[in-house]
Design a protein that fits this description.
Distance between the termini: 179 Å
Low-confidence stretches: 83-90, 197-225
Number of helices: 3
Shape: rod-shaped
Largest sheet: 14 strands, parallel
Strand content: 25-35%
């Protein structure tokens, strides 16, 4: 029970006791009970007043922040600028043929190409890296900067660096600058080392001066005697 209602209930109790004492002619008891009832009633109203004051202090509304219209308009303009100007992504994307996928056609990519499934066609690129993963198969020609084989390739492979891993198999012609075959790797076919491109120097053409012949001595005419 709250203290507020406690004082009120005690006041009612003393008031009821005052009536009983007055009925039985106990004037002293009736007077004491009446005074106690008045005191409890005064305490009840004072306590209620104080509790209301504390509740008002605790329930003061927080000051609402002032809204600056200029800042809001500036934020909206910046958001519109961000939406209107598309972001250019410079992240590189890889081409992946997943496992249990059969792709028929040619692949052209200058980024990494990972083959987990089967490709029937050619794979070409300038500065790319082609990786034939284990259980991956390629039937076609491969042109790349770097070729790593741990699956099976049937066709012509032209690359600066060709690496055949332990489960790798290449059947066909390979042209390379660097070749490595690990134990367990298989290669069957024709291998050619790519010839280095020779830079042609400046060729100077010199014309030989023709030598002038010496003039022949003229013999004087001898008159007949």
């Amino acid at each position: 029970m709250k203290k507020t209602y406690l004082f009120l209930n005690i006041s009612f109790f003393f008031w009821f006791l005052t009536l009983i004492a007055w009925f039985f002619r106990y004037t002293i008891v009736a007077s004491v009970a009446f005074i106690s009832s008045i005191i409890c009633l005064v305490l009840y109203f004072n306590y209620k007043k104080v509790s209301r004051m504390f509740n008002k202090k605790q329930s003061k509304p927080e000051p609402t922040p002032t809204i600056n219209k200029e800042e809001i308009m500036q934020q909206i303009a910046e958001e519109k600028m961000q939406v209107s100007s598309p972001m250019i992504s410079e992240e590189k994307t890889n081409t992946i043929i997943a496992k249990d996928v059969v792709f028929e056609g040619n692949i052209t990519s200058n980024e990494q190409v990972h083959i987990y499934g089967t490709v029937i066609g050619n794979i070409a690129g300038k500065n790319n890296t082609v990786k034939i993963m284990q259980n991956g198969q390629v039937t076609g020609n491969i042109t790349s900067n770097e070729l790593w084989v741990n699956g099976k390739v049937e066709g012509e492979c032209i690359s600066e660096t060709i690496s055949i891993d332990t489960n790798g198999e290449i059947y066909g012609t390979i042209r390379y600058s660097n070749l490595s075959i690990k134990k367990g790797g298989i290669f069957s076919g024709l291998a050619e080392v790519k010839s280095a491109v020779k830079s042609e120097g400046n060729v100077a053409v010199f014309k030989e001066k023709s030598k002038q012949g010496k003039p022949e001595a003229q013999t004087p005419d001898v008159g007949s005697l």
